């Protein structure tokens, strides 16, 4: 039986871009915030064994996780929303490249920045050098994609990669003014996205 999409997330987390994609598509969905209490996380792990957010319940009840995979799936499942180029094209190859780049490098460096204690055998006592290195790499990965923006990740074609980059770029570890001075094209992309109703709706939802 078909049901609404069910988005599992947390305010300010990786569920932001997925929710923006659902808004762009215009399908009904339920948004479920997952608390951080161990019992709630343990319950959530029965749906998503990775225990991370986001995860997406599909209309047939299947639950999938990994933000880039979810965004790519939504782009493919709803071609009319134009969240990605036509599969098999050169542009789609670029789309896949940047989605994986963002997930494997930018998102990964953000996790190392904000959960640095998990990456040291010393825990919190060993976190600071890891955090500093990760924050530097986060900026370097953004520098790389900055050179690509014109004005979108795929040139003049808007896609889910822009939703993803907009979210990840907002996690820059430092002052926003410094980020915008370093990454002016990313700042210009933010302006374009802020004008989209999907982004303003999800921003308001995550700020509640
Ligand atoms: N590779 C995963 C990473 C997901 C992830 O780590 N999400 C963070 C929030 S942005 C999370 O759930 N953190 C909670 C935790 O690790 O306990 C993805 O792209 O979906």
Write the layout of secondary structure elements.
Elements: E1 5-9, H1 15-25, E2 29-33, H2 38-45, E3 55-57, E4 63-65, H3 67-77, H4 90-114, H5 127-146, H6 160-169, H7 176-182, H8 184-194, H9 197-207
Parallel strand pairs: 1-2
Antiparallel strand pairs: 1-3, 3-4
Helix pairs in contact: 1-3, 1-6, 1-9, 4-5, 4-6, 6-8, 7-8
Bound molecules: glutathione.
Glutathione binds at residues 13-14, 52-54, 65-68, 103, 107, 111.
Quick structural summary:
With 208 residues, the protein is α+β, with helices and mostly antiparallel strands. The chain has helices at 15-25, 38-45, 67-77, 90-114, 127-146, 160-169, 176-182, 184-194, 197-207; strands spanning 5-9, 29-33, 55-57, 63-65. The model has no long low-confidence stretch (mean pLDDT 97).
What report would you give on this structure?
The chain is an alpha+beta fold. 55% of the residues lie in helices and 8% in strands. The chain has helices at 15-25, 38-45, 67-77, 90-114, 127-146, 160-169, 176-182, 184-194, 197-207, and strands at 5-9, 29-33, 55-57, 63-65. Strands 2-1-3-4 form a four-stranded mixed sheet, with helices on one face. Helix 1 (15-25) links the parallel strand 1 and strand 2 (29-33). It is globular and about 50 Å long. Residues 13-14, 52-54, 65-68, 103, 107, 111 line the site of glutathione.
Beta-strand proportion: 5-15%
Helical amount among residues, as a percent range? 40-55%
- Sheet with the most strands, sense and barrel status: 4 strands, mixed
What characteristic shape results from the CA principal axes?
A: globular
């Amino acid at each position: 039986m078909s049901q609404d999409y069910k988005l599992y997330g947390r305010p300010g987390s990786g569920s932001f871009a997925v929710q923006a994609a659902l808004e762009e598509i215009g399908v009904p969905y339920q948004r479920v915030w997952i608390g951080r209490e161990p019992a709630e996380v343990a319950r959530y792990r029965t749906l998503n064994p990775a225990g991370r957010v986001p995860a997406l319940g599909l209309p047939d009840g299947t639950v999938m996780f990994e933000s880039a995979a979810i965004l790519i799936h939504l782009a493919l499942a709803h071609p009319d929303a134009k969240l990605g180029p036509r599969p098999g094209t050169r542009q789609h190859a670029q789309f896949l490249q940047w989605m994986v780049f963002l997930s494997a490098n930018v998102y990964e460096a953000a996790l190392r920045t904000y959960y640095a204690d998990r990456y040291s055998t010393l825990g919190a006592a060993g976190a600071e050098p890891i955090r500093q290195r990760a924050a530097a790499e986060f900026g370097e990965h953004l520098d790389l994609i900055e050179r690509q923006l014109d004005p979108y990740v795929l040139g003049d074609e808007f896609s889910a990669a822009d939703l993803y980059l907009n979210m990840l770029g907002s996690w820059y570890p430092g002052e926003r003014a410094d980020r915008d001075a370093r990454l002016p094209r990313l700042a210009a992309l933010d302006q374009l996205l802020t004008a989209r109703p999907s982004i303003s709706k999800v921003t308001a939802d995550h700020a509640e």
